[in-house]
Amino acid sequence: MKASDIREQTAEELETKLNDIKKDLFNLKFQKAIGQVENTQAIGNLKRDIARIGTLIREKELGINQQIKTKKKSSAKKRSTRKKAAVKKVPVKKDMTGSKEK
Predict the structure, then answer these.
(1) Has residue 84 been placed in a domain?
(2) For the chain, is the Cβ count within 10 Å smaller at the N or the C terminus?
């Protein structure tokens, strides 16, 4: 279920759809407990649908009309113009025993 399809429905239609989905979820949970569910992913999908519809109902209550925005993905990576800091090499002193000291 896509949010763009749901946005076109009225608040009453969304309420009835929400109740239907909640009933379906309730039945799937019982089927899962018994071991009859073949598609366990359906439970997660129904939960997402419930959240999506609830969000859209709240948007309609508040009068928020959000447009679907698409972001353009650029294939080229942005390159940094900063130069890397030069690593200063510190000479290592050796004593007679062979251990290294700085």
Answers:
(1) no
(2) C
- What is the reported pLDDT for 22? 96
The C-alpha atoms of residue 6 and residue 32 are separated, in whole angstroms, by: 28
Rounded Cα gap, residues 16 and 62, in angstroms: 19
Domain residues for 41? 3-62
Burial class (CB in 10 A: 0-12, 13-18, 19+), 53: buried
Residue 32 included in any domain: yes
- C-alpha separations of 90 from 22, 37, 60, 93 in Å: 68, 67, 66, 9
pLDDT at position 50 is 95
Residue 8, both tokens: 């076109």
Is 0.90 topped by the overall pTM? no
Residue 46's closest CA among 4, 1, 6, 15?
1
pLDDT for 3 equals 76
